[in-house]
Structure formats: C-alpha cells, structure tokens
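2.7 Reproducibility. Because tokenized structures are sensitive to small changes in the input, we list the exact sequence used for DNA-binding transcriptional regulator, MarR family, including any N-terminal residues retained from the expression construct. No trimming or masking was applied before prediction.
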Amino acid sequence: MATPDRPGFVLPLLLLAGFRTLIDDLHAELARQGHPDLRPVHGFVLQAVGVAGTTASELGQRLGVSKQAAGKTVDRLVTLGYLERADDPADARRKLVRLTDRGLDGLRRSAVIFDQLRDRWAAALGTDRVAALEDDLRTVALPNFFRLDVPGWFGA
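Resulting structure tokens (single pass, no recycling of outputs):
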C-alpha cells in the first residue's frame, strides 16, 4: 500500500532511474571500447534487425515506429557502419537491412557489459537481492517483457 513516505509514483521513477543508470553505464563503456556513436535507441534497432536481417517496413513494425522513422535510424546506422543494405536473395525487389561486423561487435560487447553491470549491482546489493529483484519483476511484468517496440512506445 502506498504511503506518504512511499507514494506510488516513485516506483516507476525508481525503475526508470535504475534502467537509465544501467544504459548510461553501458554506453559509457561501449564508448571506451570503440563504439562512441551508439545511442540507447540503436540497441533496440540492432536487436530488431537481428542476425537474419529485415526490411525497413518490418523493422518499423518491430520497433513500433513508422517505416520513415525506421529508415532514418537505419540511414544513420549505415553511415556509422553498424548496418548495411543489401539485395534480398529470396526476392530481388526487396532490400534487406543487415548487421555488419561492427554491429555484431556492438551487440556482443553490450551483452558482456550488461553481465558486468549486473555483477556490479550484485556486489553492491548482494547476489540474492538482485536475483530476488529480477524474480519479483518477472512476477509483475508482462510475460513478453522483452519488447523491441519501446522506441515507438516512448513516441520516438
């Protein structure tokens, strides 16, 4: 039950602050490791492209944004060397967006850094408390908690 010293609106703000802390720390480390141009939204895009690649239309649907918005982000990530456009071998009329080696490297490094950040939280809070926090969030979160449409949900 919410109380004056723990009003209900604080919980989502604390969850967002925790998320923001992890993402900011991730991107600071990615920058140190040679990926200074990656931004938080780029991680969702790289995940949505996936190892098989996708079209700009499909990417927009996965991200919950328009094809045009997805295309602008793809243009930026192509310029930065994280994505490439290629002919679809199954349909010459379609263009695929695919991860480059640099894009794959950014994703791999992100996974390792997230493990390190989780370990840092476990060192600060205790392994059991971090595991309990994860379990509790799984209990109250939607079953499909890993969604790539966060950019569209935020109105990007």
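The mean pLDDT is 92.
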